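Think of the structure tokens as a kind of shorthand, similar to the way a musician reads notation: each symbol stands for something richer, in this case the local conformation of the backbone. In the example below we present two proteins back to back. Begin with the first one, reading the sequence and then the tokens, and try to describe in your own words what changes along the chain.
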Amino acid sequence: MADIKGAQEILKSLGLPPQQQNEISALTLLALCALKPNDTWSKAVRYRATISKTIMAFIRKEYNKDYAENTRETFRRQVLHQFVQACIAEYNPFDPGLPTNSPNTHYAISEEALKVVQSYGTKRFQIVAGQFTAKCGSLSDRYEQRRIRKRIPVIFPDGTELYLSPGKHNRLQVEVINEFASKFAPGARVLYFGDTANKNLHTDEIGLRNIGLIITEHDKLPDIVLYDKKNNWLFLIEVVTSHGPMTPKRIVELQKMLARSKAGAVFVTAFSDMSEFRKHLRNIAWETEVWIADMPDHLIHFNGDKFFGPR
């Protein structure tokens, strides 16, 4: 029998994003199909439906949901636009020549979506829904692809490909992998890589455990951790766009985390340019390295006694 929960399941099967699987979307689908409570799904029909006088009035009368008239734009922009994009509904199908602002503007369930709704609750439902998404695609997938295109891709030395949220910090992290790692840690394995939106985007827990770096919920790794197996070096890299260089306090915290590790720790702060580096100059700890993306072939070594002498 027709109900809101069933309509939500149909919308999910039709490939709608989670935002369009809510109650108002489910009620809109029921109204587009003229399905009253406890109607069988097979009774769904295709007809001409305006937003206020048909869809909202139907929902008010049959489902006792009284949406204010000023929510008309919510139906149009947050439900019906997406229904049309997903091929679930059609815009002005009974009079395609209507001007945009016509009072006769209307919508109708598409023939393909109607078949899916009519089959709900039967053994054929999944087959028919699959045929719909195969033909029309999934709006969720299309929206996700748009988000992915906006993200920043990064490819690790082992071929692992990830997508980062957009922003200056993550762009610099990509440069660390592409430039710093290739020049100063060739072949190193990425054990940890954080994202500004997802701090645990990539965590090789087995790799971290194998080198003796045990993470607890109270520990905070730097932005990037690389392991050079050949030299047994562990690169701990802070990527700085506004705060967070390798300070003396940060070194103490990281050394505590490394108490069981036999790998040689290399502490690195990465900056985008010299201007950003100068802002943090006084806070950078001795015996650490600084890498600046604007000068990718060079490192600045704090405390030169280790390398002191003629070239």
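Once you have a description of the first chain, move to the second and do the same.
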Amino acid sequence: ERIAESTSKTKEEIKAIYDESETEIFDIPENVLTANGIDPARFKSLSPEMSKMYKAALRSSTKEIVNLTRTTANTSQAAFINSCNVAQMKIMSGAFTFQEAIKNAILAAAEKDIEVIYPSGHITSLDAACRCAVLTGFNQTVIAMQEMRADEFDIDVMEITAHFGARPTHAEWQGQLVSRSGREGYLNLDDIGYGKVDGFMGANCRHDWNLFFEGYSKRLYSDEELERLKNQTVTYDGKEIKAYEATQKQRELERIIKKDKRELVCLDEGIKNSTDEILKEELSKEFEKKAVRLKQHEAKLADFCNQTGLTRDRYREQQFAVKTEQGISAWTKSVNGKAVAIFEKNKLPNYKQAIISDEKIVGYALNKNHSRGKDKAIAFEKYLGYNVDNKDMLIEEIRKGISKNIATERPATEYGQPYEVTMKIKGANGKYATIKSGWQIDNDTTKPRLVTVYIKGK
């Protein structure tokens, strides 16, 4: 029923994507068109044949999306049934309590996203399948229209677009000129894998091509610029990595965050719908643990994007669902608010009032003459460029760190309650390293004070 209700909205959304591009596809300067004997008004409008093809492509994309969603009922039900079967077996074995088995069943059901099974047997998540279907179908439509226009005005050469982080096989031909007839001096259609699932215009390919008027058009990218794009690297934790590898690492972190959110949504629903108090307590403990993990993963992704210069795509981190009668509506503000509150609770108590004395920084952690602190001081300067001259920068980084990371409580002593906070900080030299910091809240105060800090493993 939900799929049926959503179908009309799906059609509207896909149509909007197509309509928005209609006026942008043939944006060629009028002086270039006129110089080649082409009427700009005629060139920039869709011919009757193009309109037919455009509408057919729109119908095809919409149909594919609807077909994809129809497979999810079976995969979702199978996941639910399998989780229940495993839970029952665990209870009957006697090795698990009722509460443990139910908790594990909830997490097992949340392990995988709502899946789509293609006729080939390939399995992927519903949102990834929708993204691929719309992106691929739309790009193929635009490219086909470019070809129709090129045929109409007898244009043979096309220029492929280029972008940062292209997959290695596509980076070889992006930005190049292609002769559709196979003329010498240009790439041909086989060179770019035209029509192949992993080539130009294939699955998830973000490349397009544009009409190239020989003698008038100027290439958008020089060979030197394309070589830089192909070999472009980014820096993460002081190491150079290929741009494409960095984008794949970003996708991996996004998938981890989505999984965290699925687990939290499922646990939250379990808590709200359970009548067993012991089970509620068990699920609440698990929710707290997963909430902290989510915020840690989000911080890791933010740090990764900040260091590499990649743009954070929050759309890829989201979990989507339609609200049901039971109140399930995926990643809601309610669940997010609970996760934020739990993460805040696990930080160093009163971290905003933390005391970081000069004695601990200048007299100890950055003092190369200190009997016990000199090795720490040498490491801070060697790996992060910190010394007594820029100690305020180090103090600022430590304060940032305790505001973004959880604190681990250590056994209490006769003097007070110790804590440990591990954090990644940026050095005065622009490099990053993980440091460990020790804190204590003395018996006669509520403010934590720094007792030790050093670079982990150095």
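Compare your description with these statements about the second chain. The chain has a mean pLDDT of 86.
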